[in-house]
Amino acid sequence: MLAEKALDLVRELHRSLGGTLSPYNEDKIRQVLEEMQTLYDQNKDGAQFAAEGQTDLISAIQVRHAGIQRNKRCLLAYLYTRLEQIRKMRWEFGSVLPPDVKYNMCEQEVQWFNQYNRLLANYMRSVGESGGLDLTQDMKPPKTLYVLVRCIADHGEFETQDGNTVLFKKNSQHYLLRSECEHLIRQGVLEHIIQ
Amino acid sequence: MAALLVSSGMTNNYFSLDDILASQETIPCTFNVKVATMGYLDQSTSDVDINMGTKLDLPFWLAKYLHKGSRGIVSVDTPKTYKEGYRHIFTADPNVVDLYRLGPYFYLFGEKLLSLQLPDTDDIANVLLKTFQGRFRNIMDGSQNALHSDLASQMEKLDVQERQLFAAGQQGLHEFQKWESRESEKLSTSAMVSNHRKRKRIGYIANAT
């Protein structure tokens, strides 16, 4: 059937949207592009014969053209949805993505991610008067300046703004500035405890 | 909420994966003209050409493209699940029908069908609306009242859009619950991170065994 492979790509991506990014399926994309090229070549020949008087080829040209457009739509949707997913991950995971996610990205996507990172950082530095504003901070309205947190995983040493170092050992509890540890909570290193 | 609807394909978005999958559902078509050299689309014969009068199930995107225009390469027929027989079932009691098995994109695909100018377009539109109206109450009840119970049995008969609606209702319920127990101020791990971690753990176990 026409455009079957492109549909496979879309299905594969549709299944994996959640917490991950599926591997960039370069092989399949190449196959789809080849199919499009074949259809295009056939249409070029067909158009020539049709101009010479074989009018029953015109309908075939239309069928193939629909196939080409469908393939194009599937490919673009595949790439676009992946970019959207990567953009979402920047806000969820922070500026450094887990290695297995990075491994599944293609070269251009890595480039795009880096540029997005830079743009976002520049923008955040430019708003507000003194030193910018961190937009990824305070996802929920803050109630207190300090919060009590417990470590879920070993994370090594951490230096606070006032120069002290604390050791994030599993199951140890700390009383820290909210602004300093919110990222670590969102990344699942610390757990927020409410008395 | 608006963002949820837009990104999950309730609108007719060119990049929407749901929309692409919904437009892959097939429609019975009859060819009005001979289509040379495209015989491989019809797997039941080994002819080189598609002859006039051949009946084939084509995906919506292809049928729509070939149907439009003055020549009309194919003429389309109503798919079985939107025909009169099924319409009677839907009007009798919409709640017992398994729309996921019939669809999975029952409403989205039905909406697309309306653009084909079938003879029974008005009836289809009516039945889509009535079916949704009939089922909505149950969906709302289910999603607003089941807090910790198993939802699989309630969700299995819902079509994709109904599932999204159900999930939205559930999210609202959970957030309200959190607010009541004064937990809404608690900072938590982002959903994506914890999903990612779960998957990794499953992969790790699978590799180890």
Automatic annotation (TrEMBL), chain A:
A GO BP entry = DNA strand elongation involved in mitotic DNA replication
Superkingdom of the source species: Eukaryota
Mind telling me which CDD domains this protein's record contains?
GINS_A_psf1, GINS_B_Psf1
Q: Which InterPro entries match?
A: GINS_A, GINS_bundle-like_dom_sf, GINS_Psf1, PSF1_C
What are the annotated GO cellular component locations? Answer: GINS complex
The UniProt keywords, alphabetically, are: Chromosome, DNA replication, Nucleus
DNA replication complex GINS protein PSF1 C-terminal domain: from which residue to which, for each copy? 143-194
Q: Where is the GINS subunit domain?
A: 56-127
UniProt subcellular location: Chromosome; Nucleus
Main location, first listed in the record: nucleus
Ubl conjugation in keyword set: no
Quaternary structure, per UniProt, is:
Component of the GINS complex.
Family named by the database record: Belongs to the GINS1/PSF1 family.
UniProt-listed PANTHER family: DNA REPLICATION COMPLEX GINS PROTEIN PSF1, PARTNER OF SLD5
Instruction: Summarize the protein's role.
Output: Required for correct functioning of the GINS complex, a complex that plays an essential role in the initiation of DNA replication, and progression of DNA replication forks. GINS complex is a core component of CDC45-MCM-GINS (CMG) helicase, the molecular machine that unwinds template DNA during replication, and around which the replisome is built. Required for correct functioning of the GINS complex, a complex that plays an essential role in the initiation of DNA replication, and progression of DNA replication forks. GINS complex seems to bind preferentially to single-stranded DNA.
**Would you tell me the protein name for this molecule?**
DNA replication complex GINS protein PSF1
Originating organism:
Candidula unifasciata
Q: What is the lineage of its organism?
A: Eukaryota, Metazoa, Spiralia, Lophotrochozoa, Mollusca
TrEMBL record, chain B:
| Keyword list, A-Z | DNA replication, Nucleus
**Entry keyword annotation includes Transcription regulation:** no
Which cellular component, as a GO term, is one annotated location? GINS complex
Q: Where is the DNA replication complex GINS protein PSF3 N-terminal domain?
A: 15-66
As for subcellular location, the record says: Nucleus
Instruction: Note one Pfam family from the annotation.
Output: PSF3_N
Q: Where is the GINS subunit domain?
A: 83-179
One BP annotation, GO: mitotic DNA replication initiation
How far does the signal peptide extend, from start to end residue? Answer: none
Q: Main site of residence?
A: nucleus
Hey, which family's this protein in?
A: Belongs to the GINS3/PSF3 family.
Q: What does this protein do?
A: The GINS complex plays an essential role in the initiation of DNA replication. Required for correct functioning of the GINS complex, a complex that plays an essential role in the initiation of DNA replication, and progression of DNA replication forks. GINS complex is a core component of CDC45-MCM-GINS (CMG) helicase, the molecular machine that unwinds template DNA during replication, and around which the replisome is built.
Quaternary data = Component of the GINS complex.
The name of this protein is DNA replication complex GINS protein PSF3
